Amino acid sequence: MIENYRDALIDLAYLVSAVVLVFGLKRMSAPRTARSGNQIAAAALLLAVLATFLDPHLTWGAANLAVLVAGIGVGTVGSVYLARVVPMTAMPQMVALFNGMGGGTAAVVSVAEFQRFAAAGAVSSGQAVSVAFGTTIGAIALTGSLVAFAKLQELMTGRPVRFPLQLPVNVAAFVGIVGLWTWLLGVDGGVAAVWVLFALALVFGVLLVLPVGGADMPVVIAVLNSMTGLAAAATGFVLDNQILIVAGALVGASGSLLTILMSRAMNRSLANVMFGAFRSAGQIGAVAEAKPIREITPDDAAVLMAYANEVIVVPGYGLAVAQAQHQVRELAVELEKRGVEVKFAIHPVAGRMPGHMNVLLAEANVPYDQLFEMEQINEEFQRADVALVIGANDVVNPAARSDRNSPIYGMPILDVDQARNVIVLKRSMRPGFAGIENELFHMPQTRMLFGDAKESLVKLIEAVKAA
Amino acid sequence: MNQELLLGLYVLILTIFLGFEVISRVPSLLHTPLMSGTNAIHGIVLLGGILVAGTADRPLMYLLGFLGCALGAGNLFGGLVVTDRMLEMFKPRAAERPTDARPAAAGGSVQAVREAVREKESVRKR
């Protein structure tokens, strides 16, 4: 009797949690309410976690308690510490790491629950499918995210990794996973099949992300996010737990939507992003012919901007690499003091994750009403006196509009070349990540200011103050 | 078909539709916090880890339970904290410098008027 009340209480707590979670998520749609939205979602999730401790199946043995305390303690302390100290420039890899942890949890829980099902006797087909799904997707998300993390943290090369027989190996791994599903579901492979599936899915996650280049990370991170959401939902089926299904489905939807938005912003299909490296092998690295470029000194660039009516700043991944977000804000403030109107043009795939530039500039206290999306600001470039490009390359490459043979042809870009003057802050003339020649750098209105973005910006700030 | 499984599928699919509706209103300005926030939400698989650890009866299950709890708690709490940290930084122009009445002479009249209008607008929104 008492047990029934307890079950009902837990179920109701989960229901409340699910509803509150959606309310919290709804508040994420405006910057003013977003923070409270996240806090409301946090409260909902905490309620669900606390309710779980009432579960009558928990045995509360000393060893169980020790494992619970140790596990939750280690995970919480470690990750909260990381979350507090990580610099904003490292946010993409932070998100990748947390995402991998979630995928790992889903896989581990699925594997563990299958052991229990198997020990209890017959495994239903529903349970087997749920376990297979949770284990596969969770494990792929775990190692895929770890590879993404390693690429973003520069523990390994950010370029697409290729090796001999890569395509056959990947296909073999995929076929292997399909075979294991059949073994598990059709032939009732038992515990052994789940373990092998877990191991193979871990390998497949690595294989999947290795050939994807750093510039495509916004898409990859969104895909992995979506996968972990679906893995969590599968775990919900394994445990007959509604809140997991709801939360996982919400995340799956969010990740899928972001994947679609990011692919569209690059005018590429998801398949092209994930598997494109196989086709373009050998093309990258073509040496461009020497074309004229015009350099500019910081002093001349400063004068150009200080006496302009409107300056549009176009930040790219180079800004994050140089960690120059505070300097760019300082420059904007100096220019505004002189009456120059300063706007920031944000391309949807600038940086390494969706919205990457917005977070960096927010950290530097740039008010968000100064940040403009591509569609909002593209018409304005023709009225701008100066477009200041900082570490952005492919997202301002006019070849996307004009050159049918360019790999980025058709990708919507910021119309920087329409501005009266273009100043490009760039480390060197090495082509950008995708290895594509950028015509913008050779246009008559373009001036190059070579060097580390942070150092160049400091010089510009001093020169603007003096101008 | 098993009723419980079927109901679960209903919940899953309808929630995905709901998720699309809610998330598609989020502006690209907030895409990173959105991603990081939803990332924390799937950390709720922690409760799967709790169930495994809390019912474990042999070394393998203790190990899996420990991993589930550690990874899940890391995902959930780390994700929430980092998202809060991020969202704290998003400020509109008025909130950033509430009392900074910029001298009109420094910026020229157009700029000053623009500033004044912006100030007024944000006050009205509150």
What distance lies between the first and last C-alpha atoms of chain B, to the nearest angstrom? Answer: 53 Å
Number of domains as seen in the coordinates of chain A: 2
What spatial order of strands do you see in the largest sheet of chain A? Answer: 3-2-1-4-5-6
* Largest sheet entry of chain B: none
The geometry of chain A reads as elongated
Name the chain pair with the biggest interface and residue counts per chain.
A-B, 119 and 92 residues
Query: Structural class, judged by helices and strands of chain A?
Result: alpha/beta
In terms of topology, how is this protein built?
The complex is a heterodimer of chains A (467) and B (126).
Chain A: H1 2-26, H2 31-52, H3 62-85, H4 91-119, H5 125-152, H6 166-186, H7 190-209, H8 217-239, H9 242-265, H10 270-279, H11 298-306, E1 310-315, H12 317-322, H13 325-337, E2 341-346, H14 356-363, E3 371-373, H15 374-377, E4 386-390, H16 399-402, E5 421-426, E6 446-450, H17 453-466
Parallel strand pairs in A: 1-2, 1-4, 2-3, 4-5, 5-6
Helix pairs in contact in A: 1-2, 1-9, 4-5, 4-7, 4-8, 5-6, 5-7, 5-8, 6-7, 8-9, 11-17, 13-17
Chain B: H1 3-23, H2 31-41, H3 46-55, H4 59-89, H5 93-96, H6 104-125
Helix pairs in contact in B: 2-4, 3-4
Q: Overview of this structure, please?
A:
The complex is a heterodimer of chains A (467) and B (126). Helix content of chain A is 61%, strand content 7%. With 467 residues, chain A is of the alpha/beta class. Chain A folds into 2 domains: 2-279, no CATH class; 298-466, TPP-binding domain (Rossmann fold). In chain A, helix 14 (356-363) links the parallel strand 2 (341-346) and strand 3 (371-373). Chain B has 126 residues and is mainly α. Chain B folds into 2 domains: 32-90; 96-126. Chain B has helices at 3-23, 31-41, 46-55, 59-89, 93-96, 104-125. The longest helix of chain B has 31 residues, at 59-89. The interface between A and B is large, with 119 and 92 residues.
